[in-house]
Design goal:
Elements (H helix, E strand, L loop, with lengths): L1 E4 L6 H12 L2 E2 L3 E2 L14 E2 L2 H9 L3 E7 L2 E6 L8 E4 L2 H9 L6 E6 L2 H10 L4 H14 L8 E4 L7 H17 L1
Parallel strand pairs: 1-7, 1-8, 2-7, 3-4, 8-9
Antiparallel strand pairs: 3-6, 5-6
Length: 179
């Protein structure tokens, strides 16, 4: 399983799409209580559910991990972690929890992009200025120490295209499988 970790607007979701499209990976579709963005589709981007539904699934031990981010809840279903050809965008907390509960064969990559460049990208894609600033601030402490826990791929100033990053990740994963 490939786990992609990175601050807001670091390119994780775009790299995830490349791994699915070009390398046959399967997306782990997380659950969330936030409202879908204009381009997002229920069941493809996320499973969009209510707080009540989410809390009921927690009581039913449905999730392998859950997290709260900006007042919204996110979670990964236990059953979705059995696919070794899966790729998931996840928070550092989620990744750490996967390891804590013994999920095997995780290939974790931290996509590192300069904060200023990420803020510009957030604004260019039309996100709300106040929301963008809040997301950037909430990322600050969450990623402490993550470079020691993942393979770090620097993409300062977005110099590498998502296709290149996906190819690099695929190569590292296959080298580990074969070596």
């Amino acid at each position: 399983m490939i786990c992609l970790v990175g601050e807001s607007a670091s390119g994780k979701s775009t790299i995830e799409r490349e791994l699915i499209k070009n390398y046959g990976m399967n997306k782990v579709v997380s659950y969330t209580t936030r409202q879908p963005r204009d381009s997002e589709i229920d069941g493809i981007d996320y499973h969009f559910i209510t707080n009540g539904q989410f809390n009921e699934l927690i009581r039913d031990d449905f999730f392998a991990e859950t997290a709260s981010y900006n007042g919204w809840q996110y979670g990964t279903a236990i059953d979705d972690l059995t696919d070794k050809d899966a790729v998931q965008v996840i928070t550092p907390h989620g990744l750490r929890h996967f390891r804590k509960i013994g999920i095997k064969n995780i290939h974790a990559f931290y996509i590192k992009v300069d904060r200023r460049d990420r803020l510009i990208k957030i604004l260019q894609r039309g996100d709300n200025l106040e929301e963008s600033y809040r997301r950037s601030l909430s990322d600050v402490g969450m990623f402490s120490g993550i470079e020691d826990e993942c393979i770090t791929i620097e993409n300062l100033h977005y110099e590498k295209m998502p296709e290149e990053l996906a190819e690099l990740i695929w190569g590292v994963v296959n080298d580990k499988k074969n070596g």
